[in-house]
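User: Show me a protein chain along with its predicted structure.
Assistant: Here is one chain, sequence first, then structure tokens.
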Amino acid sequence: MKHAVSISIGSSKRNKAVEVNLLGETVRIERIGTDGDMEAAALKYQELDGKVDAFGVGGADLGAIVEGKFYPFHSVQKLIRYIKKTPVVDGGGLKNTLENKAPGFLDRTIGDYINQRGRKVMITVGVDRWGLSKSFAEAGYETVFCDLMFALDIPIPVRSMKGLRTLASILIPIVTRFPFEWLYPTGEKQNEHRPKYNKWYEWATVIAGDCLYIKRHMPFNMQGKVVVANTTTPEDVEFFRKCGVKYLITTTPVLEGRSFGTNMMEAALVALSGRGRPLTFEELVIVIGLSPKSGLTCKKPLHYVSNQGRMLANITAGVNKSLELNPKCEYVLVVSADIPTLKGEMVDWLVKTCMKTKDDLYYGVCPREVMESRFPDSNRTYTKLKDMEVCGADINITHVRMVTEHLDTWEQLIGNRKSPLRQAAVIGLDTLFQLATGQFTLQGLVERASQRIGIKGRAIVWDKAEPCMDVDKPHQLELLREDLARQQRAKRKPAPLRKPRKKSGAKKAAKPKAKRK
């Protein structure tokens, strides 16, 4: 069983341990509070290092991520100084990925209610939840960011993302050197309730941010308000109910009566992945054309983008989403949804192979003999070259700048993807002639196309057929259904039993040797 532990400098009264099933695997997630004692927390990390699968940092942040840049909280970094083996996260990954779905969820579920009362959101500390802040602003909400009020007790609101960026650029390099307890309640201070800043609580329809921050200064009259938070206990829920909160939305799931912090849930995902390190933004999965209602599951965080109507537009939307989540992203893996026999180790091989160089586009091909050996009845379309016949792969890697350059050419190439000769004509009539007469080798064709388009391309020759076996026709659907069913039957088939060896009986009596006369 995987085991993820969040060690918090918060109150031990909020401790909890549960076992949950995530993607078919049981994970034990546990919170241990040290009542504000940072040294006790550091020693607890040291005690459990190498004995659990992942750590979460609770009640504090290792740093703040603003516009993709990480600013470390120096006083918090010493918490993890004894950790040598177990991966550790503070929830920043989920804050900048999962939480930005909250405004869309509100619109889908209680959008009419919010629109009637006004699209106004108060965010307790916007810099701490950059993804949440940005997503509310982009969803058309009037915003008030209370960073100065809640963190520094300065009663000045910030009213826009531009203002929040300016504030972050000025203050983040300074406040990250403050003792963390100056900025956030730790230990028993987490249980204090001092109503304050009522004006902004009354103004907002939605109050979003850290649960402890929201409760700390919340007025007793919250009639009709919508609260977006996490790390809620049953006592928190009851307090919100008594104060008149209409809707409580948690950005992490409720497990046995409470929602855990983003650090705990991110630690659970790290433990589940089995990689022995924190997950990166690049390991997130963006699904285009489906919604969360599809029931799709993945060990990596999923993000959904609506269907844009055309393949290139979908790819562009996916790349733009990747850059939104991680502005430092350089490459994306583009995968079609109709290659059901693709396996994880094939994806790993492709990424490892491609990232040995720094090309603009990596396009996969499968030799005809490889395809027909694995799927003899596939009836794929092949391009005949001087040195081989190939079909195209449905999983490729591209540099993110490719979605902003040569768009007309990509549109034509993608539109003619079922006809190699028409694609060649897009490159040039001489290219069409040479391809039609079998004059190109694979490398020669790559060099010609790269030169004409103005990119640096590389062909990836697969020795596996699965990445290139898509479902375009009814007979291919039936072919792959049977193939997958055959694989499932093979998994369920019990291993043959060995026949027991016959026990050897008594030793045969030795034949008497003939006596010499």
